[in-house]
Design brief:
It contains eleven helices and no strands. With about 300 residues, the protein is mainly alpha-helical. The protein folds into two domains: about 150 residues, no CATH class; about 110 residues, no CATH class. Helix 4 runs antiparallel to helix 5 and helix 5 runs antiparallel to helix 6.
């Protein structure tokens, strides 16, 4: 398993290595700003809180690294890969940098039209979001290309993961539209509160692109028969879908307890599949090591 991870780096194309480094830098930025928040003692919530620099750094860094990794399973030409990964890395950097800059300036990053400069930043963030939607939508379409070199369960995990990320981006776009509508209606301060009600759905669907392919990837180290590996990935996909859909529905309709019961059941399915898979990986590794020691003795 660790050999596979090393090969992901040693065999990576130059654009992939650059993107991996950028993703790591963004994660470091998010961790640093979390430390700044802890030391400052400021509130976590609010349009100018350190939370934004923290979450944007961590989320964009993790998502960039994830997209680079999962795209290695897609049937992409060298030029397609260079354009898509390069563009995505550049926009992730721009979005995080602009948000972080505004946090340090003590001004909101989104929906802010107080000055000409703030308006330009807000529009640049919106434009960057549109580019991200286009890149991820393109990768989603490409995940449905025939690729017999990739296991069926991984193809399923990739497709469902990209669809979940698409949903997250669409919810984010809806948040921006709702906020901008409030701004043009003269309610700039209300824009931050009105758009915030969609945050749970946005967050719940963002990292399926990592969770589901990682689950499919881990099953390949279990020693299980193909049917069991496929079954566990299907359970994980079903659990994640239940969890995400329930949170999204609650965001829009406010079903409350019912939605969270369904989300909990879905989360338990996904967690159970993941825990059992990891346990099987550890077991298979122990057996392999024991066999190696026996052979050497």
């Amino acid at each position: 398993m660790f050999g596979e991870l090393r090969r992901s780096w040693t065999e990576a194309r130059p654009v992939d290595r650059i993107a991996y480094r950028i993703g790591a830098a963004l994660i470091v930025s998010g961790a640093f700003h979390f430390g700044v928040w802890v030391i400052s003692g400021d509130a976590w919530d609010g349009p100018v809180s350190w939370r934004k620099a923290t979450t944007f750094g961590l989320s964009f860094g993790l998502t960039l690294i994830t997209v680079v990794w999962v795209s290695s399973f897609l049937c992409l030409s060298s030029r397609e890969r260079k354009v898509l990964i390069g563009t995505f890395a550049a926009v992730c950097t721009l979005e995080t940098a602009l948000v972080t800059m505004q946090v340090w300036r003590g001004t909101p990053s989104h929906f802010n039209q107080e000055t000409t400069f703030d308006t330009a930043v807000s529009r640049a963030l919106a434009a960057g979001g549109a580019v991200i939607v286009i890149v991820i939508a393109t990768l989603t379409v490409m995940s449905f290309r025939a690729n017999p070199t990739v296991e069926r369960r991984m193809r399923l995990a990739l497709r469902m993961g990209f669809i979940a990320l698409d949903l997250s981006l669409l919810i984010g776009a809806a948040m921006i539209v709702e906020g901008v509508t409030q701004v043009y209606a003269g309610n700039q301060h209300e824009a931050y509160e009105v758009a915030g009600f969609l945050k749970p759905g946005h967050a719940a669907t963002m990292h399926g692109i990592l969770i589901l392919p990682a689950l499919a990837w881990l099953t390949s180290f279990t020693g299980w028969p193909e049917s069991r590996r496929d079954a566990f990935v299907h359970i994980g996909v079903a659990g994640y879908a239940l969890f995400a859909v329930a949170i999204i529905i609650d965001s829009f309709s406010g079903l409350g307890a019912i939605a969270y019961v369904v989300a909990g059941l879905g989360g338990l399915l996904l967690l159970g599949a993941g825990v059992l898979t990891i346990a099987a990986v550890i077991r298979a590794s122990s057996v392999a090591r024991a066999g190696g020691l026996t052979n050497r003795s």
